[in-house]
Automatic annotation (TrEMBL):
The lineage of its organism: Bacteria, Pseudomonadati, Pseudomonadota, Gammaproteobacteria, Acidiferrobacterales. PANTHER family: ECF SIGMA FACTOR, RNA POLYMERASE ECF-TYPE SIGMA FACTO. Residues 102-122 are annotated as: Disordered. It comes from the Bacteria. This is RNA polymerase sigma70 factor. It comes from Sulfurifustis variabilis. CDD domains: Sigma70_r4. It holds the Pfam family Sigma70_r4_2. GO terms for biological process: DNA-templated transcription initiation. Keywords: Sigma factor, Transcription, Transcription regulation. GO terms for molecular function: DNA binding; sigma factor activity.
């Protein structure tokens, strides 16, 4: 005779799995949103909205689908933020928005290497160069690059998350890689 989990226990395990998934994707999602919004507080709001949307609409979906679904929701929230910001700028031009951002989240990433000062300085220069190079990419190229290279989504998942064709993903990714390779020079792996 096989044991069956009661529905309450299954729900608890599912909730714990979703909590682990969201905790694992939170920091990377914040950095993606930070690049898109160029504002720490706005990025936090976008990620929080994406997480609530993920829980509300997709918590019941299979765990294997959560990565692509979350990034679809995140990209949707980023597009919503852009639309809202565009409307605010059009209607409130007399209110100058403070473009000063807080601390760069890339500088807060834990260093898995040794505390060697020369290595830390080199890493800091490389991360700064990467951040500047990513900022120079077009929005679509940056988002495709981050979803493909950083999040590890495949072409189809990236296309689904961004709401574009697979050919468009391939084109934007190729252009982003070439631009980053050219910009980063010695820092490119």
């Amino acid at each position: 005779m096989t044991k069956r989990l009661d529905p309450g226990r299954r729900t608890l395990n599912r909730k714990q799995a979703l909590d682990r998934f969201l905790a694992g994707v939170e920091r990377r999602a914040f950095i993606i949103a930070r690049f898109a919004t160029r504002d720490t507080d706005e990025a936090l709001d976008v990620v929080q909205e994406a997480m609530f949307g993920m829980i509300r609409h997709y918590a019941g979906r299979p765990e294997e689908e959560w990565g692509a679904l979350f990034h679809t929701v995140l990209q949707s929230r980023i597009r919503d933020w852009r639309r809202r910001t565009g409307v605010r700028r059009r209607w409130r031009v007399w209110l100058a928005r403070d473009e000063a951002t807080g601390e760069d989240p890339l500088h807060n990433l834990p260093d898995p290497g040794s505390p060697d000062p020369a290595r830390e300085a080199s890493n800091h220069r490389a991360l700064s160069a990467l951040a500047r190079a990513l900022e120079r990419l077009s929005t679509r190229q940056r988002q495709v690059f981050l979803l493909r290279a950083w999040e590890g989504l495949d072409v189809a998942q990236t296309a689904g998350a961004m709401g574009c064709s697979e050919g468009s993903v391939k084109t934007h990714y190729s252009r982003a890689v070439h631009a980053l390779r050219e910009s980063l020079g010695d820092h490119w792996p």
